[in-house]
Amino acid sequence: MGDDREPRLAFVHLDDEDWIEVKAQMHGDRRVSIREKWLEFTPERLSLYARYDPGVIVERHGHMSDHVVFVLDGEITVGNVRCTKGMHIMLEKGAVFGPIIGGPDGAVLYEIMMGDPRAVPADKPGFAKLCAERGVTPLPNPPIDTSRWVHLGERLD
Question: CA–CA separation, 70 vs 87, rounded Å?
Fold first, then answer.
């Protein structure tokens, strides 16, 4: 029993997508966040365009699928590796990376997750320590409205 569905060809323009805040923190009295534009979100994959504010911190984590990150502009530090414009990062399912820290001017990334995109924390105590050292207060993850996406990834407009 195979998949009888016709292969899909889809076009999405970045300018037609809204920014979605997916992570927020307080750095003193300044709110810092990660925003994404989801270009494709299906059970098979998620592709997104992300903007990291300067200094934003993402805890060391892995994903429940293979994950590709490409730095389009600015820089991030992943663990001890400075990743500048043009850097490609391959994270296979089960691998972990981070913490990730937004560079002095932030960063713009293109990411693809090939399957379940959920993150799996790998060092919560280390993240808490790093945030405390830098005076960062993580905020609850903003609610994300996925109602405009259906199972096959077709858009509901």
Answer: 6
Short-list 141, 142, 144, CA closest to 41: 144
| Structural domain spans, the chain | 14-131
- Give Cα 152 to chain centroid, integer Å: 21
**How far is CA 151 from each of CA 10, 25, 42, 113, rounded to the nearest angstrom?**
15, 31, 6, 16
Task: Output the tens digit of pLDDT for each of the chain's 157 residues.
Answer: 566 788 989 999 999 999 999 999 999 999 999 999 999 988 889 999 999 999 999 999 999 999 999 999 999 999 999 999 999 999 999 999 999 999 999 999 999 999 988 899 999 999 999 999 999 999 998 887 665 554 334 433 3
What CATH homologous superfamily does 14-131 map to? Jelly Rolls (2.60.120.10)
> Which of 121, 141, 137, 136 minimizes the C-alpha distance to 59?
121
Q: For the whole model, what pTM was predicted?
A: 0.88
